[in-house]
TrEMBL record:
InterPro entries, A to Z: ArAE_1
Keyword Membrane on entry: yes
Keywords: Cell membrane, Membrane, Transmembrane, Transmembrane helix
Origin species: Oceanirhabdus seepicola
Name of the protein in question: FUSC family protein
Stretches assigned to coiled coil: none
Amino acid sequence: MKKIGLRNIKTALAVVISVVILRIFSSETYFFAPIAAIMTMQNTVYSSFKTGLNRMIGTTIGAVIAIIAVELSVNVVVNSILIFVGIILVIYLCNVFNFKQSVGIACIVFLMIILYADNISPIEYGISRLLETFMGIIIALGVNYVVSPNESQKRVYEYYGKLKEQVHEIFQNIILDGENPKLFLLRDDISKFKTIFSSYQFEHMDDNKYEEELELINNRIKLLREANVHLKLLYDMRDSCCLSTANYAKLEQHDYEINLKKSAVLPIDDHENIVFNFHVDKMINLINKL
């Protein structure tokens, strides 16, 4: 049986907290804050912050257009036309301002205000619904920050470990004249790791005790990118070049399997072999640093 994920639990907790707070303050609805909490909750604090910010802006767009529409609505027919035009406008503005992920919540806010603001001042109703949505977003951010704050750290180190193994495997395959399908994915995987690290970095950028660790991981990313360049060059040269005796000895020392046909004493003027072994030497040093 698949286990219940942490994001699942955090989402449920944020929803319950939202509903309880609304009940304490005797809110007329229990809808806006929980739905905002659900739509804001992400795997990391950084992702939730970005999503929550977009939701806030989208919600504001939906609420402002709804308030204007309610003021213009004089009967059922006009109201229906305003709903049609308003939804188009809400979606259009979210897309124009690049808040595409906020379209859903913006449309929900727009509809709830224009459909249920009959006996209340539209401005008062719109602002109260807007504040409830903001509350749900803030609760989701708070829950994400408090519950398992080290989840993003675990993710960073797990992904880094996989990349190290990937670099080792690609380099080993080059030495053995093997194919390297993972080489062509390495750049994208490093970029993905950079994104994961950015989330972790954002969460701890103002905490001095993480400064050294963040700098260390950032340097590891630079080393991984450098390794990617050397590996691509080695892969292109692998068929026509052989190892120098010095590099052969270094690889043996590090327990690498070595294709014997690559072992040779190189002519000093063999430029291609010299370049090939330069990159082999760089890779050995990089792998040690990683």
